């Protein structure tokens, strides 16, 4: 009976639609960052994103407030910095210097880095097939880092995006180890709130002097409300219904939507090197997730 429920849930018509929706939402975040990163700058943009995302999830934090002891907040702040503040800043910085597809492709490395960090520091098994998948994924990153778009080198942006994915991988393991007993939406609200407070002084001192246009504001609000707050809720609902492994297949969709939206709305080309790197990275992620 216990097996029948997840299988039935996996066949629920809502699941593929919600996976597509989540892939599109997270893919669009790289488009929105590309539009808003230059007018806002990384610090101001990330502060808006964190604050709005935390605000959307705040009711869940309030409802589960009994889970949060006073001594937990320093730990929550560290996790918020590693899992949200710093990666968001790195992706925003990369968005100023490279096509949106670069960040979206690098983001797919999160699954591989989570496995690597779990193996190195948290005693998780990795296996030969997953080790080979990691190697292939890193080859994809090298291909991407050594390529050019519009005559510009992408190395710095790829390094920033890959570092952000590495931090996501660390953050996943920290959340699993230290926040496992807390409802996920409440934990996300707490870590996002801490991250917003950490970034706030930098945002205040780096707030742009020039007026920010309506398009940049709309993009920043969309990143915070839709791509952070609502996306977390949708992701956790999928995890609850079909399990983490199936929900994580959204990883394959994010680069496709990210690159597609940037091509459609910004006219950014998808180069052969991007395609090759995307195939290598997404293929390695697929193998990694299937590995025992």
TrEMBL record:
Keyword Transmembrane helix among UniProt keywords: yes
Record's subcellular location: Membrane
InterPro entries tied to this protein: AA-Vitamin_Transporters (IPR050638), EamA_dom (IPR000620), EmrE-like (IPR037185)
Topology in membrane: Multi-pass membrane protein
Membrane recorded as keyword: yes
Residue span, EamA domain: 20-145, 157-287
Coiled coil: none
SUPFAM superfamilies (alphabetical): Multidrug resistance efflux transporter EmrE (SSF103481)
Listed name of the protein: DMT family transporter
